[in-house]
Amino acid sequence: MEKKELIHEGKAKKLYATEDETMLIQLFKDDASAFNGAKKGTITGKGEINCTISSIFFEYLQSYHISNHYIKNLSPNEMLIKKLDIIPIEAVMRNVVTGSLEKRLGLQEGMMLEYPIFELYLKNDELGDPLINEHHAYALQVARPEEIRLMYRSTAKINAILKSFMERRGMVLVDFKLEFGRTDSGEIILADEISPDTCRFWDRKTHKKLDKDRFRFDMGGVEQAYREILERISSN
Ligand code: UDP
User: Fold this and answer.
1) Portion of the chain with pLDDT greater than 70, in percent
2) Binding pocket residue ranges, ligand 1, CB within 6 Å
3) Helix (H, G, I), strand (E, B) or coil at 127
4) CA 2–ligand 1 middle distance (angstroms)
5) What does pLDDT average to over the chain?
6) Which domains can be identified in the chain, with CATH numbers?
7) d(CA 97, CA 22)
8) What is the pLDDT of residue 235?
9) Position 236 pLDDT exceeds 80
């Protein structure tokens, strides 16, 4: 599949057109950013690692009939994806308290949530991706009620599937962010990526952080942590 013009460049990925107008190429960069772009850096090898990790998760979810935009890998850091109309909402699911939830509600980091929390954030860099609820989404006309319902159901299913997948490999799926898009026929399917950039993973026994928090908080061993995730999810 031939790579044509660059159509979008984000903080961690680039999107290219292809000769097929229903498909795009998603290229994963080594660039890393945190705190709404205030902290920037590079993580050597991250592009290839995250592309591979995302492919493994997308294929695994497809085996559970969770439709997503992944088609196939084209190179170590490039995947062919279905072109979608992306809904400008970040869907976050949390199993354990940390990050912005810990701060917002003054909760103890590491507290297990008996009922996972589903949150919506509006994708808007200027506003720093504010937390919204479904009624804001309808008023802003970024998604319809049945679309938000579908996003919730899909995120809850993905949480159950990936939580036990990670548990079997000695890790806790702390929280994660998903993005969804519409196909031409109006179907809502999973898009973007699923990687240590967009999920929090802790070692089950030691609670060692194996994700982007190591970059956010200058904890060192960022690349090793990303590699460890890849190694652990590649084994059966
Ligand atoms: N997250 C993300 N992109 C964002 C914000 C959050 O992928 O722009 C992910 C983050 O990696 C974590 C989850 O969503 O797995 C919840 O993040 P939180 O709200 O705690 O964000 P923080 O402000 O701590 O990044």
Assistant:
1) 100
2) 90, 92, 99-101, 129, 175-177, 198-200, 212
3) helix
4) 33
5) 97
6) 6-82 (3.30.200.20), 85-220 (3.30.470.20)
7) 39
8) 79
9) no
